[in-house]
Amino acid sequence: MTAEIISGKELSTQLRNELAEEVQDLKVTPSLAVILVGDDPASHSYVRGKEKACRTAGIHSIVKRHPTSLREDELIAEIDALNEDSSVHGILVQLPLPEHISEDAVIERIAVNKDVDGFHPVNVGRLLTGKKAFTPCTPLGIMKMLEISGVDPRGKHAVVVGRSQLVGRPVGQLLLNKDATVTYCHSKTKDLAFHASQADILIAAAGREGMISEAHVKEGAAVIDVGVNRVESTGKLTGDVQFEEVKEKAGWITPVPGGVGPMTITMLLHNTVEAARGTMFNDES
Fold it and tell me: Residues in domain Tetrahydrofolate dehydrogenase/cyclohydrolase NAD(P)-binding (predicted)?
């Protein structure tokens, strides 16, 4: 058996086309403001990707670039101004920030209804209690990939390898909200292969190159590889999963690159459109 490849690149193209049609039907043009502080090359690359994606979906993109020397109070003041600007629907501060700026203080300053990254404590709390919320983009993208691929979490055993606030914990909660039985594994877990091999849905999000082998995977499981690791000898990107051997045992698998990555930006566009609708916190849920 060879696994079905879940191509985030293909799904993203499809979903971005659908989002572009939705944007045309809105009474306002969705607007996303991105704040970038410092000169981290990866952050600049991500932001350029977000700008390009916004253009393809008909979303207005505002990028505010600042030097590393920007003070925390100056950044907070800029966020306050964007919070008050009714023409801006989503605000994203690109992480990581320079060491002298508190990420928690910055995230908590963003208005909850403009927090399209889904990191504000209020959105995190709403996610935990099963209410509608802006959800972190990578976990949301993972759930969309499972949904479109026909993998229903209900009644399934899902194992999440990794417990980060950005991916591991929220994706586990989303799976739990969809009636999966969820196990978290991490660096202190004993006999990872035993726990992982029980999974109907295996999420590899530890950031360790090739840590998931064929021995960690149950026959026919859905394997979602969130890892992005650069091989020192070649410079190539690779995931947490040993793709070539695992694809012969899994039922579904995502590649790296071209898997979860493109879906992350697509879900940012999705959240921005939802922010423009302004209905996220109508508490009928």
Answer: 136-277
Of the listed 115, 117, 200, 240, which one is catalytic?
Answer: 117
Quick check: is 117 catalytic?
A: yes
**Residue range 67-111, pLDDT digits in tens:** 999 999 999 999 999 999 999 999 999 999 999 999 999 999 999
Report the CATH number that the domain containing residue 34 is assigned in CATH. 3.40.50.10860
Q: Which of 50, 156, 178, 249 is catalytic?
A: 50
Q: Is residue 220 part of a domain?
A: yes
50 is catalytic: yes
Residues 142 and 255 reside in one and the same domain: yes
Neighbour-count burial of 202, counting CB atoms closer than 10 A to its CB (0-12 exposed, 13-18 middle, 19+ buried): buried
Q: Is 163 annotated as a binding residue?
A: yes
Q: Is residue 63 part of a domain?
A: yes
Domain count, the chain: 2
The predicted-structure confidence for 213-246, as pLDDT tens digits, reads as follows 999 999 999 999 999 888 877 878 899 999 999 9
Model pTM? Answer: 0.94
Residue 156 banded pLDDT, cuts 50, 70, 90: very high
Domain that holds residue 197: 136-261
Do the annotations mark residue 228 as ligand-binding? yes
Per the annotation, the verdict on 165 as an active-site residue is no
Q: Are residues 70 and 152 in the same domain?
A: no
